[in-house]
Amino acid sequence: MVSDSPVYNVKISSVGPGRATVGEVVQHYGGLDLAMKLHYLRGVYFLGKAAAEGMTTTHIKESMFLLCNDYYMTCGRFRRSVGSGRPYMKCNDCGARFLEAQCDLTLEEWLDGYFSGKAEWNVGQLVYHLPVGPELFFSPPVYLQVTKFKCGGMSLGMSWAHILGDIYTATDFINNWGSYLAGHKSNGPFHQQAQPILNRPLLPTSPNGQTPEPLSLKRVDPVGDHWVTANNFKMETFSFRLTATQAAQITARQTHNKSKKPSLFESITAAIWKSIAKIREGINEPKRVTIIRKTNSSQDPMTGNNRIAIGSVSTDFSVAGSDSGDLAEWLSDRIGELVDEKDMIDEAVERDDGASDYVVYGANLTFVDLAGADLYGLESNGQGPEFVCYEVQGVGDEGAVVVVPWPKSSDGEGNEGRVVTAILPEEEVEKLKLELRKIGVLEED
Amino acid sequence: MPPILPDFSSTVRLKYVKLGYQTLVNHFFYLLLIPLLLAFTVEILRTGPQELLNLYYASLHRRLDLAVVLSSSFLITSVATVYFMSKPRTVYLVDYACYKPPVTCRVPFSTFMEHSRLILKDNPKSVEFQMRILERSGLGEETCLPPAIHYIPPKPTMESARGEAELVIFSAVDSLFERTGLKPRDIDILIVNCSLFSPTPSLSAMVVNKYKLRSNVKSFNLSGMGCSAGMISIDLARDLLQVHPNSNAVVVSTEIITPNYYQGKERAMLLPNCLFRMGGAAILLSNRRSHRSRAKYRLVHVVRTHKGGDDKAYRCVYEEEDREGKVGINLSKDLMAIAGEALKSNITTIGPLVQAFEHFCIHAGGRAVIDELQKNLQLSAEHVEASRMTLHRFGNTSSSSLWYELSYIEAKGRMRRGDRVWQIAFGSGFKCNSAVWKCNRTIKSPTDCPWADCIDRYPVHIPEVVKL
């Protein structure tokens, strides 16, 4: 069957809570959540034949209705407060958009095509996504797509509006679904209060009465009700895999001082930062990067952007010209003492009651470390996923790089592989590939 | 603005007179007996007990003519036999079961509107119209549509329609078997009514096939008869049970939504999409004396009124194609007035008994229907509560709605022995059909009815306009 996309026969419906949310239940958002509203997390979970056994549409939907009973606060629709226009969610059980599709390839074939880097292969085939708006009333914040593959495997794709929560809440959502699938979980008591947003204490204001502006936040022109990041360039995504061995080699190459060995994430960050600096030579060289990773908090609320730490590091030296090992070491030091700007972002947004629009991913060149996210925690028929990848939609012009753990590739010495996804301006993607090949991060074709 | 329903108390009074005359004419011979009986009683009393005893002894000593003795016994026996044989057989409602859709079929208002917006993306006015209807409809957030209709756009194939029919009918019938202990081989009469889906083989054949009913089962399939077809089926079952002694009749009432979801944009035809929802019921009727003690109800009366002779009434619920050739059901603006007229005809036959009802089940066709009937029959809020709450929880499930309403009354523990229930259904034609039941035994709140998990939340206050 000749078609543009190998994915076809798409059927669209909705899944939502099985129990009615009675009364005027609303979910409010903090400043940080509102700052994230132009971003969307997109993840795909690939399940092999054994894991996908018996996954009929009915079975999947039944389990999702149970899941949505707990997650009713992701199943509503956005509204704006009268007066300030501050977005909140009306928990009206509208639900997540649910898609069913088929693919004439096997899982392996699709994944190979995806990592071949050809432009027509993209995660969008397996995760239908539309941004929120222009009609907030009718825009689902969550999209779920189930695609059945020729080999009997299936993929579950999810598009998750970042305003709802960070990667850790998103992965919990999917992992909990697995529990409902297996019948291990049942809904808790029926409570109808909206989950309270964790109130982080505001930083005390500095002596001159003004808290410093967070470096990781950039205000953008008003987008109204269409929550799309306005880019000056067309953004493109490309992904590559690093096996455990390759990952170990990269780290080894960048370690000058055995006692101060940079982590894998820091090594990759340094390598890519330097490559991008070389591409964007001169004035455009990114002197500052934002680092997003897991925070040390032990709390795990169902929603909210509380489990990530956001901070930025700035250089005054030329990154393009620096030695990559030195850069990695410097980065390691700076990340170790990185200031978490979440509260500052919160306060900055609250200053005008959430009326302004912002970007965080892509405000500066952003590196996201998803280590610590239980990506492979989804269980189906007692099996975990074959592969999981995540990326971010709605990234600002500076671009973002997401580093996702790949535990299925390990070398027995404690090293794990990684999947690296870069979201960059179109014209930079090929140049980056060249650079990465030069430094041995990316294999030759 | 529909015309206000006329006050028909004066015409009712006239009808009472007519009723009285009819009774006189129909029961003439029985009425003749009354003066004879009175005369006999007076004579006995005048004669006095001693005289009677003397008469008795005298007759004993006189050897009465054998012929006289035999013929008088024969006369008494034949009169008694004719009396018992011509008495109509009592029809019992042993039990019934209503279908409860799975939660995956649930359609909250917001989802309905969002899907509508996506399907009718070029017709925002039609979407607005549906929103206005839904806000004022009296439906709640837990009504259900079949799986095929959840898709954007809906996917109504013959296969999915059969799928819905199997799901609804088989679940209801399984539930009925469980509640009554009925075995499929004991079903003598099977009547299935479903107005808008009539495949070949018929839905009744589908039931016969699924449950392997006897080859001499008397099966009937009523289609096209609208929302009042449930009462027509009950009437048919009753008539058949007069002819067939010692029999069980199963009636299945449902409406299959899948093939009838209107896919166009004409407003009058979008209205049923907003109101009709998935549902079905299976009822066991019997004239077996063995069922007498455990039957829930006894059928007292069925009254059928057909206003189809009037053109306006005939056309007020009309299935037709819109300008784009899409088929839908057109509801005329005179619907309420015509419903009022039909009700008038129907209740004057039931007439003087109206005051004696404890419970009312008014077809939950829509909020307006219930409002008007409440006003015209001067019913209290509690009388129409079953109808309103059924509309809220299940939507308009067409011919099966009366059974959900009855189930509500039982679930609330309000059904006592001797209570009389009046079920009133309206439907295309235009017909008004009603049935009167008498409760045979006080019914404990059932634990396995469709209301079991939510009855404690009811009754709910239904606002005039729901804010979406």
From TrEMBL, chain A:
It holds the Pfam family Transferase. Gene3D superfamilies: Chloramphenicol acetyltransferase-like domain. InterPro entries: CAT-like_dom_sf, Plant_Fungal_Acyltransferase. It comes from the Eukaryota. GO terms for molecular function: acyltransferase activity, transferring groups other than amino-acyl groups. Transmembrane segments: none annotated. Belongs to the plant acyltransferase family. This is Protein ECERIFERUM 26-like.
UniProtKB/TrEMBL annotation, chain B:
It holds the Pfam family FAE1_CUT1_RppA. The keyword Acyltransferase applies. Its EC number is 2.3.1.-. One of its GO terms (cellular component) is membrane. The chain crosses the membrane at residues 27-45, 66-85. It comes from the Eukaryota. Keywords: Acyltransferase, Membrane, Transferase, Transmembrane, Transmembrane helix. It catalyses: a very-long-chain acyl-CoA + malonyl-CoA + H(+) = a very-long-chain 3-oxoacyl-CoA + CO2 + CoA. Residues 357-438 form the Beta-ketoacyl-[acyl-carrier-protein] synthase III C-terminal domain. GO terms for molecular function: fatty acid elongase activity. Pathway: Lipid metabolism; fatty acid biosynthesis. Residues 83-354 form the FAE domain. The active site is at C227, H306, H359, H363, H392, N396. Belongs to the thiolase-like superfamily. Chalcone/stilbene synthases family. This is 3-ketoacyl-CoA synthase. It comes from Linum tenue.
